[in-house]
TrEMBL record:
Residues 470-493 are annotated as: Disordered. Residues 474-489 have a biased composition (Acidic residues). This is Major Facilitator Superfamily with SPX domain-containing protein. One of its GO terms (cellular component) is membrane. The chain crosses the membrane at residues 249-267, 279-302, 314-331, 337-355, 376-398, 410-428, 513-539, 545-564, 576-600, 606-625, 670-694.
Amino acid sequence: MVAFGKKLKKLQVQEWESYYINYKLMKKKVKQYVRQIELSEHNREYVLKDFSRVLDNQIEKTVLFLLEQEGHLASRLSVLGEQHDALIQQDDGGMIPELQEAYRVVGRELLKLLYFVELNAIGLRKILKKFDKRFGYKFTNYYVKTRANHPYSQLKQVFKHVGISAVVGSLSRHLADLQDHQGTFISIYDQPALSLPDPVIESIKAAVDRLTNSTNFLQYIGKHALIPEEELPTPSDDDVDERYHFMSLLLNLVNTFLYMVNTYIIVPTADSYSLSLGAAATVCGAVIGSMAVAQVFSSVYFSAWSNKSYMKPLIFSSIVLLVGNTLYALAYDLNSIYILFVGRLFCGLGSARAVNRRYISDCVPPKLRMKASAGFVSASALGMACGPALAALLQTNFKIFKITFNEDTLPGWVMALAWLIYLLWLWVSFREPYRDEKLTTTRQQTNNGLETGALENVASQPLLTSSVEKQQDNDDGDQEFDNNEDDSDESHRPVTSIVSAYKLLTPSVKVQLFIYFMLKYAMEVLLAESSVITAYYFIWSSSNVAIFLASLGLTVLPVNVLVGSYLSNMFEERQVLLASEIMVCIGIVFSFHVIIPYSVPQYVCSALLTFVAAEVLEGVNLSLLSRVMSSRLSRGTYNGGLLSTEAGTLARVVADGAITLAGYCGMSKLLNVTLLPSLLICITSIVATCFTYNSLY
C-alpha cells in the first residue's frame, strides 16, 4: 500500500510543488509533539499553539497561490473574451475552432487548479485526523470551529474555493456560446441546457462537484446503501466488468424489494392475527419484531458468507423465507401463536441484504455502481410502500382443503409463492462471478486510498501524467512515519471482528450510528403500532391502515428527490441533519395524546411529519456516515453497512419489544408510553449532534 504522502507527491504538478501543503513536514511535527508530550504534560498547550501556527501557515501559502492562479486565469479569460466579441462583430466563423481550443486550454489549466485544491483539502483532513488519533484530543473540532467563519481565516477558501465558480461560469458560457447551434438564441441564458456539453466542462463540473460535495438525486440516494464508491482507477477495472452480469444484479435488487415487502405486508393485520390466536393485540409488536431479532444474527453470517459466494446465500435465503412465510400462514389453522413467531423468525433468518450490498460493491463496475446503489435504496423504498398496499388488496376469506385464506394468512401465502417463483428464477438466471484474490486485494487497497477525490480519475490523467512522470519520489524517508499509522498496509486491512470494528468508531461515527438507531426506533414505533392505535382511537379497518402505511411509504422517493436535488445543494449536510432531528422531535411531541379526544388530523399530520423528517434524516445520516467512517470499515465482513444495519435492526427490536411491554399498561396509555422513549432518545441525539457538529465535514 503506497503511503498517502507518496501519493500526494506523485500527483503534484511539478512546477507547483512548493505551494502544496507540506504533508511530510506536518507528519514529522506530529511525531515530535508525541515525544514532547511524553516528556511533560506541560508541553500540551505549546503543541496545540505550534501545530495551529503550522497549519495556518501551510493553508495561507496554498490559498495565496490559489488566488494568484485564479487571477491569471481571469486575465486570460478577459483577453479571450475580447477576441470573442471581435469575432462576433466580424462574423468570422473560421476563427471559432481556434478560439474554442484556446478556451479549452484555459479549462485544462483550471482543472489542474481544481485538483490542486482537492489534494490540499484531502491532505489537510488526513493530517487533522492523524493528530486527533495520536493525541486523543478533539483538535479538529477546535481548529474548524475557530476558523470556519472568522473574517481572516483562509480555511474556508480551501473547502469552499471562493472565486473558482466565477471562472467556471465564464468559461462554460463562452464555450457554449461558440457552439454552432447557439445562433438561434438571443444569449446563452435563454437556451435550454446543451445535450452534449464540452468534455472539458464536464470534467471541470465533476471536479467542482467533488469539492463542494454537491450532489444530485442519484448520488444522494445511492449513498443510503452505504456501498463504497470506488473512484480510483485500477488495473482490475476490466476484471470487474467481466464479473458484472445485469440479470444477477437485477435478482439482487428483486431480493431487496421482496424482503421489504415481506417485512411490512403483515403490519396492517398483525394485531388481528394475534387476537385470532388468543393473544393480546399489542403482541403484534413482538410478532413484527421477531423478524428483526433474527436479522441481527443473519446479517453477520450472510455478510461472512458473501466473502465466498453470492448465489448460495441467496438460494438459502429464498428457501428459509419460503418456509418462514408458509409457517406464518399455517399458524392460523394450527391455532398456535408459537408457530406464528417461528415463521417470522425464519423470515428474519433469510435477510440477505448484506449479500445484495456486497454484490453491488464487488461486481458492479464503478461507472454503474452509483446507479446500482440508488436502485438498491429505491427497491427498498418501493417494497416498503408495496407491502401495506398489497395487504389492503388481500381482504377476502375462503378455504381450500381445510386451509384458511383470509386477510391474516394471505400475506404469508402470497410471499411464500413470491419466494418460490424467485427461487426458480434465481436458479435459472443467476451467474456466480468468479473469485480473484488479487482483484479483491487491489480493490480493498484502492478503496482505502484517498478519501473523497478521484484524483487519479481518467479525466485528470492528461493533465497530470506528464508531471507525475517527471516527479522524482524523494519521499523514502517518510516511510518511518507511516509505521503503525493509518497510512500503513496493516491499517487498511478490513477488520476481522466486531470488537475491532468498534475500536475504529470515532465519536462522530458513534453519534451517527446513534442517530440511525433513533430514527429507526421512531419509525418502527410509528409503523408497528399503527394498526393498534388506529383501531383503538379511530376504529380503522385493516384496509384503512394498509392504505395509510402505503401512503407514508410512497413519500420516500419524492422526499429523496427534494433533498438530493435541492436541499443538499443549498445547505450543508450537517445543517440538514440537525434540522431533520429537530423536525422528528417536533413530530414526536405532536403525536402525544394530551388533547381529548385524540383526532385523526393530529395523528395523521404528526405521523407524516415524523416519517418524512426521519426519511430526510436517514439520507443525510448515511451520507455523513460514509464520509466520517474509517476506510477499514469499507470492506470485509464487519463493514460500515453491516454496522448501520445492526444499529437499525436493534432499534426495531427494542421498539417492537417496547410496544408489547407497553400493552400491559393498557390501551389508553400505549401511545404515550411508547412515544416517551422516542422523545428522550431524539433529544439525546440532538445534543450529541451539537457536540460533534464541527467534525461533520
